[in-house]
Amino acid sequence: MSRTPDDPAAGPEREDEPETGPLRRCIMTRAVLPKERMIRFVLGPSRELVPDLAGKLPGRGMWLSARGDVLEGALNRGAFMRAARGPVTFPSDLRARIEDGLRARIRDLLGLARRAGQAVSGWQAGREWLQAGRAGLLVQASDGSPAERARFGGRGLPAVQPLAAAELGMVFGRDHAVHVVVAPGRLANAIRDEAERLAGFAGTPPGTA
To answer: Where is this region: Disordered (predicted)?
Structure first.
């Protein structure tokens, strides 16, 4: 699909602010937010819209609040064309691609945490980390039983449910995993940020604090 700058919803305003500092302005809502709560987009060689989930691709970035409704509004109302000052093409399944990419990033981060000895899965190992005060984040299966998640404990800790039990299990070499505990630190923070971005697109709550 494509849009051109003469879209009736388009206007003269362009996102010209420098990409410096911890905050970015959403090209759709104009809200200024931490970049961890946003998605960066760049234009590819043929002016196709490319989501830059890691925020590292070359080119001028266009930042959007990490919410599905904001993405739909930006696509339908010409926000990307105004920011890019020209025509932009985008795939019809852009939202699904973003969600899949965020899930992949969460799996990769959990894999890093596991290999670094900063994450464990399973009821017994997870409970031991909770009782020892080694927990910084709970990652629980989105399709797990709410009653079981509540019974696991960890009240007062941030908790997210970004992946299904089969996806969590793949990371830890198991058929499925419902409970994962991550140690405090950079990886736990990154997993939480990605889970919250995913929740904004998937339309589900990221978890509880």
So the answer is: 1-23
Q: How many domains does the chain have?
A: 2
**In this structure, what CATH number is given to the domain that contains residue 73?**
3.30.1230.10
The b-or-e profile of 119-136 (16+ CB within 10 A means b, else e) is bbbeeeebbebbeeeebb
Residue 29 has pLDDT above 50, yes or no: yes
Phi, psi of 205 (to 5 degrees): -65, 140
Among 37, 70, 92, residue at a domain's last position: 92
Question: CB atoms < 10 A from the CB of 84, how many?
Answer: 21
**Which of 40-44, 151-155, 203-207 ranks highest by mean pLDDT?**
40-44
Rounded CA-CA distance 206/209 in Å is 10
Q: What is the pLDDT of residue 18?
A: 63
In this prediction, residue 156 carries a pLDDT of 86
Does this model's pTM top 0.90? My answer is no
Angle at CA of residue 172, ends 168 and 174, nearest 5°: 85
For residues 78 and 100, membership in a common domain is answered with: no
